[in-house]
Every structure is written in structure tokens, then in C-alpha cells.
Amino acid sequence: MSGIVAVALSSLEEPASLDILALVMGLLGGLALFLFGMDQMAESLKAVAGDRLRTVLGKLTTNRLTGAMTGALVTAVIQSSSVTTVLVVGFITAGLMSMSQSVGIIMGANIGTTITAQIIAFKITKYALAIIAVGFGTLFFSRQQATRYRGAGLMGLGLVFFGMGVMSEAMAPLRTYEPFLDWMIRMENPLVGILAGAAFTALVQSSSATTGIVIVMASQGLITLVAGIALIFGSNIGTCITAILASIGKPREALRASVVHVLFNVFGVLLWVGFIDQFAAWVTSVSPQSRLLNDTAKLAAETPRQVANAHTIFNVVNTLVFLPFATQIARIAERLVPDRTIREEDQVRARFLATELLTTPPLALDRVRLELLHLAEHTQVMLEEILPAMLNGTAEEIDNVAEQDDTVDALHGKIIDYLGQISQAPLAKQQTEELLTLMAMANDLEHIGDIIETGLVGLARHRLKERVAISDETTSVIGAFHEEVQRAFQGAVLAMAERSETSSEEVTSMKASINQMTDLAARHQALRLVVDEPKRIEAYSIEMDILENLKRIYYFCKRIARAAVSGEATGKGDKG
């Protein structure tokens, strides 16, 4: 609490009538209850609404206004603008939206965070314990997981109000403490108020906490609306520190998104900082007023709602003002954070596995599916390049294919580790089944890489060592078989990306043509045995093994395609 209260008290002579220890304990304890309640409520909302959020996020359009509304909605539900930003970064990385298209969503996320202020501005702290009791009862006695989540969320809401009540009670003595009141008058200076709000928000890493404390102080009549607005402006700048810290070590898109967040918040404050008095007058005119009260009582009755409204109006108006300039803001961010040369070690880095989403399993599982497509890209390159390496490639070309399996193995390991972390969270039955399916598909992609790296690369090296030449006729047969397997792989990836039943059925129906091509290839190879060519036995053995390994790759493709739409993680029905 040093950011708002203790700093003021530390330089003042403490009279005996003010119990500093009780004040600090009440403020810190109340803040802890407030933050814990916020976290509990947000976790429950994410668990209940996670699957619906996936649908909403999947329908994002290129319309800036729609994007802003979506960003506001998602952030209002999950109570975390940083999580919304992470999701946006994933869409950019996946090529589903451009940087300029994402600006609207990032702006809308700021609107979503104002919902917290609107909720806590309601003066229902005296009912906090009743809300906690009802929430706990629902959580404790219900057997349905969804109902238990709702109970936990209700209990979290009660803790938010209870924490506010504790802080409010602790601050009550400050209403008559002249040195503190004199210090709070300094908050009327916009620069002082903004700096105090920014410093406290950066310290606690939560603009909601700053907003909550400002509203509590307002409910005690300790600050005016002008001072409250200055502190709220400061919290908008202070929360940028969180965005910057969250982007450290992340892809360039994440850093650009945080830069957009910073530019939007800072420019927004600069737009209003010279008009705080006029803004306060406007907010007062549109907020409820208590005409029967006077002085401190009137201040305490009206200011909390006015502060909440100022917070909302500030972010809504800023969004409407800056939204038409989304493209220009995106360009500024791209210039400030230019692309860097991709190093070899960066290619192995997971693109989509964000730790911020681990507490929202449905969204985290969607990111795994995106990372599986990243894994499939590397596997597909191996599959494409192995054919020329097998048939007539040099030792260097063969080794290059083999080395690519290291990337496949590294990404596979990251995916499995991320799925393991997701499994630590409470999962619904459907989410558990999806997790197992994604794990099975990751394993199947890794198996395809292993078949290429150990089986086909081994055969290519054996061919080179024994100096076996593959005939043009056999090259044509193997090439056609390889092309069919590639088509199956691409269909499996499409089924995985779009959950496409059509693609899945096409891959599964290719079994007949694969078997037919296997029979034709076997007959061709039998005829080649009687041809008078050097090392025909060695050539026959290598060629048949190549076909067998390609056939194994097809069966893994079929397993992936089937699991992608049916959730069959075991690949039942496949015998090899």
C-alpha cells in the first residue's frame, strides 16, 4: 500500500489517535482478499465460458468495430487483457489476421477491463458474507462441475466486496486525519495523481486493484472525482508495464501487441490530461446524484459510481477516437519492433504455446492444435525431401533430411509438456478427451518423422553404401506411391486444422487405392527380380522396404485424420 497511503504517512508525524499498524493490516489484508476474489471469479468464468469463448474467437472478422467489441467481450469474461493479447498474438502468428486488424481487439480489451470497476462500484459490501456463503454452499454441495464453477465464481465475487469492506473500514480513520487529507489534495494536480496511480499499478501489476482502491477511497469521501480520474489515468499507464514484461522473450508479434497497448494507453491519457476538469463535469452530469446529501457524505455517495463511469467513458471514447487510425498505429508498432533475422535455434521455438492460457483449458487446447500444424509443417518438409534423397540423393542431402527430425522431436516434446501442464487444471470430460486426442496426433506426427529419419533415411544410406541404382521404372512406381502418401498427409493436416469430416473421409477412403498400389508395386518388383541387372537382389530389398515404410506413414496419416474429427485417440481399427 506504500503507493497511495504509506508514502503519505511516512513523512508525517503520527498522532496517537491513528493506529498505523491496524490501518496497514486492514489495507493489505483487504487488498489480498480483493485480488484473491478477482482471481477466483476470473478462473471460474473462464472455466464456464471457455468453450463459448472459443466459438466467439473463431468468428473474429476483419471489421475493426466488431474486433473491438469482441476484445471487450472476451476481456470482460476472462478479466485479463493480457490473455486477450496473447490470443491475438496467436492469430497473427497463424496468419489469421494482420497486425492492423488486431489493434481493434487490443483497444476493446481496455473496455472489457472497466467492467470490474462497474461491478465494484455497487455498494453491496454489507451483503458480501451472504454472497460468500451462497457461493461456498453451491461449490461444496453441488456435484455438477459447471455448477461448482459458478459457485466458486460467486464466492470470488463475495470476496471482492468483502475485501473492499475491510479496506473501507481500515480507511475510515483517515477521514479525520488532517495530514492525510492535505496530502490527498495534491491528487488534484493531474501530474501527481497520474504518477501515483501509475506507480501503484506497476507495483501490484493490476489496474483493477488500483481502481478498486480508488473507489474504496471515494466511498469514504477521501478523494474528489478529479483526483480519482487522475489516479485512473495513471493506472492505465501503469498497466502498460505488465504488457511489456509479459512480452519479454516472446515472438516479435507479442512485443508489437504490447507496444500497441502502450501507445493506445499513453496517447489516450495525453488526449485527456489537459481537460480533466471538463471531463469530470461531463461524468458528473451523466452519473446519479444524491441531492439530499452535503459535503463528505455527498462525496462518498456519488464519487464511486462517477469514478467507474469515468473509467468506462475514458476507454470507450479513446477506442472510438483511435480505431480509425488502427493501420497507422500498427505501422508505428512494426517500425518500433522490426522483424529480425530468423536464427536456426528460433525455428525450433514453439509459436503458439502460451503459458498465460494454461488456466483456460479450452483456449490452451486450441493453441495446441495450432502448434500441431506447426509440427506438421516440419514433418511435411521431411516427407517431401526424402524421395529424391532416397532414390538418387548424396550423403549430404540424406543427412539434411535426418537432421530435420531433431526439430520435429523438439516441437513434439514442447507440445507434450504443454499438454501435461494443461492436464494439471480441472478438466471437463470433453476437454480430457480432446487433450488425449491431441496428444495422440502429436505422437503420430512424431512417429512419421521417426519413420522417415530411421527407416527411409537408413535405406537411403544403405543404397548409397551398396551403390545400388534405382531404375527409372521403379522410380516412377515409388514416386506415384509417395505422391499418394503425400496427398494423404495433406488431407490429414486439413482434417486436423479444420476438423473437416470430408477431409478425414477422403484420407480414410484412400486405403483401397494404397493397397492396390502396394499390390501393383509388388508385382513390378517381382518382375524386376528376373531382369539381368547388377545387385538386383539388394535393389529389390531396398525398394520393397521403401514401399513398406511409405505404407506405414499412410496408416499414421489415417489415424490422425480419424482422430481429428472423431476423437479416437487410439487409432482403433488400424493394424499397421
What is the arithmetic mean of pLDDT? 79
Beginning-to-end CA distance, first to last residue: 65 Å
Order of helices and strands: HHHHHHHHHHHHHHHHHHHHHH
Radius of gyration over all CA atoms, rounded: 31 Å
- Kindly state the percentage of residues in helix: over 70%
Number of helices: 22
Low-confidence stretches: 1-16, 342-346, 570-576
Largest sheet features: none
Q: What does this entry look like structurally?
A:
The protein has 576 residues and is mainly alpha-helical. The chain has 22 helices and no strands. It starts with a helix and ends in a 10-residue tail after the last helix. The model is unreliable at 1-16, 342-346 and 570-576 (pLDDT under 50).
In short:
The chain has helices spanning 2-10, 20-58, 64-78, 81-93, 99-120, 128-141, 145-171, 178-185, 190-204, 207-219, 225-247, 252-272, 276-286, 295-322, 326-336, 361-392, 395-422, 429-466, 472-498, 501-509, 511-529, 536-566. The protein is mainly alpha-helical and 576 residues long.
What tags apply to this protein structure?
576 residues, mainly alpha, 22 helices, elongated, disordered N terminus, disordered C terminus
List the helices and strands and how they pair.
Layout: H1 2-10, H2 20-58, H3 64-78, H4 81-93, H5 99-120, H6 128-141, H7 145-171, H8 178-185, H9 190-204, H10 207-219, H11 225-247, H12 252-272, H13 276-286, H14 295-322, H15 326-336, H16 361-392, H17 395-422, H18 429-466, H19 472-498, H20 501-509, H21 511-529, H22 536-566
